[in-house]
Design goal:
With 187 residues, the protein is of the alpha+beta class. 43% of the residues lie in helices and 35% in strands.
Length: 187
């Protein structure tokens, strides 16, 4: 009988030890999972902040009339695709888009200004996208005030740790009755 009691105590102690071991392993597993989740959330927030900084650099370069600095936010080479508001309807490659920006600024007296609002950013791994409203004001070469609001959707890719715009789509709503762009609409 004493042997049976001793064996039961050993079995009970072994069982308790196993239970504690499983609880410890489970706690470590869940702590690790929580740490990974927190790390992923931090990484996403860091990436969103990096894209926000990119958009701020773009706006600052635009407001300075510095096309070269603006283009540092875009994928260099031939991989960039831009669907623009004005002809041509698309630009394939950074060199083409650089020329379009130079032409854009050539239509203004002085340097036009841009304000980016309603910026929404989504990131998943090395890909991201944003949507925003961009308001441009300035004076054209004939002295007329220019006041345009466009919708912009950007696609980003993280390359060597840096976010770059790889796809851009600029648009305005269209009045379907007249077929003309609606440059003054509000949400």
């Amino acid at each position: 009988m004493t042997e049976r009691i001793t064996k039961n105590k050993i079995d009970l102690a072994s069982g308790a030890f196993m239970l504690l071991l499983l609880l410890f392993i489970g706690a470590q597993f869940f702590a690790g999972a929580q740490t990974k989740k927190e790390h992923a959330m931090t990484t996403v927030k860091d990436d969103e902040a990096a894209i926000m900084a990119l958009e701020n650099r773009f706006a600052a370069a635009f407001n300075a009339g510095d096309v070269d600095a603006m283009m540092k936010n875009y994928l260099p080479g031939k991989g960039l695709v831009v669907f623009d508001l004005v002809p041509p309807r698309q630009h394939l490659g950074a060199n083409e888009y650089h020329k379009a920006w130079v032409g854009f600024f050539a239509h203004f007296k002085g340097i036009p200004k841009i304000a980016i609002t309603d910026l929404g950013i989504t990131v998943n791994g090395n890909l991201g996208f944003s949507h925003s409203i961009q308001h441009v004001i300035g004076t054209d070469l004939h002295g007329h005030s220019i006041d345009r609001t466009v919708r912009v959707t950007d696609g980003y890719r993280k390359i060597d740790g840096n976010w770059l715009i790889v796809l851009e789509h600029v648009s305005v709503p269209v009045d379907l009755k007249t077929g003309k762009p609606d440059l003054t609409s509000k949400p």
